[in-house]
Amino acid sequence: MPSKEEIFSKVQEALVDALGVEDDEVTAGATLQGDLDAESIDFLDIVFRLEKSFDIKIERGELFPEDILADANYVDNGEVNTKGIAKLRERMPFADLTNFEANPKVQNLGKQLTVGDMVSFVEHKLSA
Amino acid sequence: MVIVALVIPLEGVPLRWFWIDRFTEFVAGSHAVGNKGIALSDSFMHDHWGVYPIMPHSLMAEGMAQTGGLLVSELYQFKELVVLAKFSKLAFHGVTRGGDSLTYRAEIDNLSDVGAAVKVSGHAGDELRTEGEIFFARLSSGDDAQPREPSMPTRLFNPMDLSHWLHMTGVFDVGVHEDGSRMRAVDYGLPTELAAS
User: Fold this and answer.
1) Domain A1-61+115-128 = CATH 3.40.50.11190
2) Set of chain A residues whose Cβ sits within 8 Å of the Cβ of B88
3) Is there a contact between B26 and B71 (Cβ–Cβ < 8 Å)?
4) Which residues in chain B touch residue A47, judged by CB atoms under 8 angstroms apart?
5) Region for residue B28 given its phi and psi (left: phi exceeds 0; alpha: psi -120 to 50; beta: otherwise)
6) H or E element: which one contains A17?
7) Which fold has domain B17-186?
8) Pairwise CA distance, residues B187 & B166, whole Å
9) Where is A99: in which H helix or E strand?
């Protein structure tokens, strides 16, 4: 199992290549959509690079569970409900959802995903 | 994005968005080499600067996309919905003028369930004119090749148009599988009796 620093370094390389950003922009606290301007199509590319770089298989919806956000059982008036939050916590043990829970609008989830979350995601995958 | 133009042709309308004249190599699952001759009489040459006609870079990108796109589409038997998602890298060098012949080479770089990445270059003679990396997203999969979203079309091309395109550009003249056996239209379920268009 690679160290956290090694994982960060490879995640950083994947994001630099996928998003055309500079190394020093890819900090642990940088948000993918807000700070690094990732668009939805970039997430496919990022997943693709992480799979290659770490020799792992990432299922669709595993990094970003869009199926929960589109499920009427888990969303009320554009906000993820208590059941949905519990489901997200179950599916995203790698992500810090504290900020999202304070304002659980569906569109906020993607905005809050950080580089640090990506590193935790890979750690989670490698330890599974 | 560039590939969108390929979706526009309607059933029965001839597809003439050709940015490769002829393939000279096509090794399924590995690489493809295609040529595009540039003529001063091509109207698009005169769109940038009237006094200095050059091949627009956007159309060179289209040639790269078509070379890589067909190579990737073959991975999925030309049946699945595979679209150009993005150029992850793209650079141009020098200018390409009438009388040049561009040779595009695409190589499969990475392949997974979500799509494929290809590295593509374009040379005029020995001179590197363009290089890039393209990511193609696979939007349908499985035996029935159904799209992942109900709103998506099931295919990009009418099979007759696609077969025309592959025949006219010589894919079935030079195309081989990695074991050296010939690629044949019938193996992909494509029409072999081509209608006039």
Assistant:
1) no
2) 17-18, 20, 45
3) yes
4) 114
5) beta
6) helix A4-19
7) Thiol Ester Dehydrase; Chain A (3.10.129)
8) 13
9) helix A98-102
Comparing CB atoms, the residue among A20, A42, A48 nearest residue B112 is A48
Record: contact A51-B112, CB cut-off 8 A: yes
Taking the Cβ of residue A17 and every Cβ of chain B, the question of whether any pair is shorter than 8 Å is answered with yes
The ipTM of this complex is 0.71
Asked if the C-beta of A60 comes within 8 angstroms of chain B's C-beta atoms, the answer is yes
- The answer to whether B115 contacts A41, with C-beta atoms less than 8 Å apart, is no
Residue A111 touches partner B, C-beta closer than 8 Å: no
Q: Where are the domains of chain A?
A: 1-61+115-128, 65-112
Of B30, B99, B104, the closest CA to residue B65 belongs to: B104
Which residues, 6+ apart, have CB-to-CB distance to B124 below 8 Å?
B94, B96, B100, B101, B102, B103
Q: What is the pLDDT along chain A (128 residues), one digit of tens a residue?
A: 889 899 999 999 999 999 989 999 999 999 998 899 998 888 888 988 999 999 999 987 888 888 899 899 999 999 999 999 999 999 999 888 888 999 999 988 888 889 999 999 999 999 87
Tokens of B106: 């695409």
pLDDT digits (tens, 9 = 90+) for B138-182: 887 554 555 566 667 777 788 888 998 999 999 999 999 999 999
Supply A100's token pair: 């999202």
